[in-house]
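@channel sequence for tomorrow's demo:
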Amino acid sequence: MRRAKAARGFRGKAAIVGIGLSARWEAPGRSALELLAEAVHVALADAGLELGQVDGLLTGTSMHFMPTLSVAEYLGIKPAFIDGTMIGGSSFVEHLIPATLALDAGLCEVALICYGSNQRTTTGKLVSGAEPQPYEAPYEPRNPIVGYALAAARHMHQYGTTREQLAEVAVAARGWAGLNPEAFTRDALTIADVLQSRMVCDPLSVRDCCLVTDGAGAIIMVSAARAKDFKTKPAYVLGAAAATTHRQISAMPDLTVTAAAQSGPRAMAMAGVKPADIDTLQLYDAFTINTILFLEDLGFCPKGEGGRFVAGGAIAPGGGLAVNTNGGGLSCNHPGMYGIFPIIEAVRQLRGTAADRQVENATLALVHGNGGQLSSQVTAILGTQDTL
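structure tokens (generated this afternoon):
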């Protein structure tokens, strides 16, 4: 009862009025903070605000031990509200929750959520400050892919999911990326290409894995009371929820069921919507198995049916469900943590500015973040003014 009352007080209380990306996904010589600042200024210009008006900061990076302090100092701001919640790649979707609460409570007036990384041109691989996990480190797993490969293998064993069905996810993402001039990889990709690509960790090949890019993203939020005064079309936060089931993949209760099964229904209940109402989904697709698991756990198809659900181009351009319309982490970008980019793409879809990949008459978008090895799951429902 208490949770339901709180949920009613959350819906539609804040909105995203500014979004920004760094200019490119490969930026040699640029630091993570330089890229982040570039995206912040793009987002501020989009909202018609100045940096000095930002008094709320929410951020997380894998490169800085105290990210809010490093980012605030670099930007030269002194926010009255800060939140550095770090739960992996889903952090930025989670940041929508404290940002909404802080704006509604008057703790800040302009909230900035931001992220940047230069991992591609500095290391060429994932940069992570994650500590060794005590019960797994002795086996020297190749993280993070080992956890996702275990989930994929179990799903194949338990439900008959095939490598071809996993490949469908990568091919669909590439199809959307082909419509997005900002996507890092846009060349044609076939099921055969995925199946014949280099195996990294059975059953996941290199084309089942996300990109390794540089890049940054930023979001500007204000209270709903102010949002209507901005030049951009606001994207209102209608519902959001987080959940976790484990830290180490060996502690995951069921390799085929993620905590999205908890966060998704709670976020949709808060928003007062159901899966059939959603116009577009932006899911954290670090690996192809992610999309299949999340479609099931969020209620878009029955458990175990995700592989068959995505077959035949069902989530590709022209399919029945528009998923990851920017090309996702598999084909658009993935600078270490991807969670802020699904939000930005959802806002573009709700504004109607996604050009060739625009979903017609989109008014409701589901954004889903993932962190660790399927460890943290955060779902948010965004909507236009008409959905309030």
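heads up for whoever presents: The chain has a mean pLDDT of 95.
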